[in-house]
Amino acid sequence: MIRAALKSLLGRKVRLLMSTFAIVLGVAFVAGSLIFSDTLNRSFTALFASTVGDVVVRPVGGTTADGAPSTVTLPASLLDRLRDVDGAARVDGNVNAFGVFVISDRGKVVSGFGPPAIGGNWSDAPAGHGLQGLAVVEGHEPHGPDEVVLDERTAERAGYAVGDRVVIIPSTAVQPEPGADFDSLRLTPTLVGIAGFPSGGSLNGATYAAFDTATAQDLFLGGEDAYTDVWVTAADGVSQEQLRDAVAEVLPDGVEAVTGDDAADESASDLLEAVSFLTTFLLIFAGISLVVGAFLIVNTFSMLVAQRSRELALLRALGASKRQVIWSVQLEAFVLGVIGATLGLGLGVLLAMGIRALFSNFGLDLAGQPLIFAPRTFVAAYVVGVVVTMAAAWLPARRTGRIAPVQALRDDVALPESSLRRRLWIGLALIVVGLAVLWLGLFSDLPHGGWQTGGGILAILLGVAAASPVISRPVLAVAQAAFARLFGTVGNLAGQNSLRNPRRTAATASALMIGLALACTMAIVGDSAKASVDRSVEENFVGDFVVSNVIGTGFTPAIGDRMERVDGVQRVVRERFDAGERDGERQGVSAVEPADVGSLELDITDGDQSGLSAGSVLVQRSWADDEDLGVGDQLTFEMPAGERTYTVGGVFEDNPVIVWPVLLTLDDFVDAGFPETDNVLIVFTDDSPGIQDRLDEVVADLPVVTVKDQAGFAQEQRAPIDQFVRIIFALLGLALVIAVLGIVNTLALSVIERTREVGLLRAIGLSRSQLRRMITLEAVVIAVLGALLGVLLGVGFGVALMYAVRDQGLEVISVPFGQLAVFLVLSVVIGVLAAVFPARRAARLDVLRAIATE
Q1: Residue limits of the ABC3 transporter permease C-terminal domain (predicted)?
Q2: pLDDT tens for residues 493-521?
Q3: Model-level pTM?
C-alpha cells in the first residue's frame, strides 16, 4: 500500500504541484512571521547590550514612562566620586536627548516615525563586558559646536558624506533664556565623522547625532554641567554585580546603580513589549492564511480522492482494508505536507525580507540585521505543514473508506446528501452560537466584550463556511439562469457544472469569502474611524490654526514665543503631554495654562475652571467614571521627579483637544520632571489676510513643525489610520492570493476530472472558444459567490466592530459602498484571470484521447 500510494503520488506530478500551493503559502506566512519576530527580538537585544556600560548610574525618574529623558540629571561632580570607587576602570558621563532630527539633502526628515531621533554627546566608552558599541568608522570625533557625528544608516539615507554641512533640528533643545535667537533652532554643523557598529548591527531605524560634551550640555541641558546618566567601566576581574554594589555605596539619595545586563534587559523588554503587537498581528494573519489554505487543501484532496475512486476501489477489491486505504491517502498528505513545509520555509525567508522592507517604510529599519533562524521556526513550519495537511485530508480519506468497491467501479461517487445536511446543521448551530456570543459582546456588561465580539465573528464565519454548500444553492441557481439567458447553451453548462458539486464550489468560494470578509471589515473600520475623526475635529476644533510636530514629539517653546509676536495673532494656547505611572500602569497626562481653559471651550460638568490650579487637576468624564473619581478626590502619580499627589478640581466632558484624560497646569507639568517642550499650539487670530503665510514663515526652516487649519489638522489625524489600513490590506493580500490560487486549482483539477466529458463536448461541436468561455464562467460563479458572501459578512462584522468600540470615541459608522463595489468588480476580474490556465489546458486537450480517458 505504501508503494502504491507513492507511485500514485509521483504518477500525477501536475496534481502534486498544484496540491502543494496552499501548504507552501500557509507555511511561508507562519515561517516568515516567526523569522521576522525573532530577528526583531534579537536586534533589540543586541542593540541594547551594546549601548550600556558595565554599570549604569542614573537618577531615579531619569526617564519618562515613554522612555524619553526627563529633566532630572546627575551633577558632574558625581563623576569624580565614582572614579574613586574600587574596581572602576573609567567613568563616562552621557547626555541623551530625543527629538534631534536630521534633515536630508532634499529637505526631508530622515526618520523619527516610530524609532526615536536621538541626540547627545559623543563618547568612546566601551559597552558592558568590553563589547564595542558605536565607534567612528570614518572621519573623527566631534570637537566644538560646529561639528557632528552621524550613524552610518542616517548619513546614507540623508545623502551626507564627511565634510558636508548637515541640517539638524534639535526640536527639544533648551533655550538659554526666553526670547533667544530663533535661528539657533536650526543647526548646520559639519559632518566630521560617521559612526557604526564594527562587529555588525544597526540602530533599527533610529537616527543618532552626536556632538561634543560641552555642545550637548548647552543644547539639551541649558548649559548645566550635568549628565543624564553615567557609565562605569569595570576593571579586569571585577564583575558587573561587584562593581554595582561598590558604586551604590557612594551614591546620594535619588540616584541608583544597575548592572549593564539589567539595564539592557529592562530597555529591551520594555521596547519589545511595546512592539509585541507586531508579532501577534503577523501571527493572526498567518492563522487566517492557514484557514484559507485549509479550505483549499480539503477541496484538493476531495477532488483527488474522487478522481482516484476507481483505483481505490480496485485496491479494496484486491483485499486492502478501509484503514489501509485511508492511511494511504494520509501518507500522500504527509508527503505533500513535508514538501510544502520545505518549500514554505524557503518562501518564508523571502516573505520575512518583504515584511522587513514593509516595516522599514514606517520607520522600523532592520536592514542591517541578519535574519534569525531559530529552531522553533523549523519545528513550527513542519508541524503546521504536515499537521494541517493531514488534518485537511482526513475527511476526504474517511469518505473513501465508505465507498463500496462496486459503487466506485461504476464511477458512481456522488456524496450522500446526509453529509450536506449534517454540514448545514453544524453550520447553522455555529451561526446561532456566534450571534449569541456577538450579542453578549455588544450589548451586555460582561467583562472582555472585545473577546466575545471577536469570538462571535469567528463562529459566524466558520458557520457560514460550513453551511455554504447548501445556502449557496439559490445563488448558483440564479447564476445558471442568468448565464443561460446571456450565453445560451455554454452558460447553461457552466451553471450546471457549478451546481453539480456545490460542496466543491462553496469550499473554493469560502476561501475567497474569508479574505474579502476581513478586507471589507477593515475597509469599514478604517472609513468609520476617519469619519469619526472628521466629526470630532469639526465639533471640537477651537482656534484658527494648530501647530504640531509631524513626528508627534515636542518642540521648543520658542516657536510659540515667536508666533505670539506675529501680526494678527490674538492668543497662543500651549498644550503639553507626556506619561507618568499610576498604580504601576502607564498613564498619560496633559497640561495647559489655567487661563487658557476658557479658550479651549471645555464643557466642565462638575466643578469649574478654577479647578485647574497648582496641585489641582481636571479630569475627563469617561476616565473619571472608569476610575470612580469625583471633585475633591486625590490622584497620586509616580512622575520622573518623584511621587506627586493632585486633587481633582473638576470634571469635563471628553474632548479630543485634550490628548490625555488628566489635565495639569504647565507649572505642575514642569515640576513633575517633564521636558519644557510644547506638543501642540492652538493659535487664535483675527482672520486677517495672509495670516497663515505669516505663521508658516515662523516654521519655514523647521520641516518637522507644521501649521494647519481645520481641514489640514483633520487630514493629519486621518493619516495614521490610512497607514494602518494599508498594512492590513498588504497582509490580507496573501490570503486573497491563496484564495485565487484555490480557484485556479479547483478549475484545473476539475478539468482533469472531467477530461472525458470535455472530449465528448468537443466531439459534439463545442468549439475551443466556447469551452474556454464555459470554464471562465464557472470561475466567475465561484468568485462572485465568494465575493457576495464575503461582502455581506464583512459589512455585518464591520458594523458590529464599530458598535463595539462606540465608547472609545469612534461614534460614526461609515460603510464605503464605493470600495465594496470595487471588491465585487474585482471578484469578477479574479474569476476571469483564474480561469486562464485551466481553460487553456482544457481547450488544448486532444479530443480522441480525452474521449478514451477512463
Answers
A1: 284-404, 730-846
A2: 888 888 877 777 777 777 778 878 888 88
A3: 0.71
